[in-house]
Amino acid sequence: MTLRNQEVSQTTAILSAYIAGAIRKPLPRDVAARARLHLVDTFAAMISGSLLPPARQGIAYVKSLGGKPAARFTTRRWRSKAASRIP
Which string of DSSP letters, residue by residue, matches 20-58? Predict the structure, then answer.
């Protein structure tokens, strides 16, 4: 197997085939349940963390940069330029 004129090792080919086929396999129930908990925890951390002083300082800094509004902040109603987006 080649990719852009470079050889791909057998290990890489096997791993690639496994990853490509994984989308067709259902997740085990316990894995899906833990993934949901991690997702909820991540959003909770983003929301609660956005109220802390370091986040407020970061947001103030990004606002000072200006630019065309392109990227939306998860916990704010305003937008910033995409290059300076923080969660």
Answer: HHHTTSPPPHHHHHHHHHHHHHHHHHHHHHTTSHHHHHH
Q: What is the pLDDT of residues 29-52, one digit of tens each?
A: 999 999 999 999 988 888 888 788
Q: What residues does 71 pair with on adjacent strands?
A: 80
In degrees, rounded to 5, the angle at the alpha carbon of residue 56 between the alpha carbons of residues 53 and 58 is 110
Pairing mode, strands 2-3 and 6-7: antiparallel
Q: Which residues contact 35 (CB under 8 A, 6 or more apart)?
A: 27
> To which residue do tokens 């290990």 refer?
11
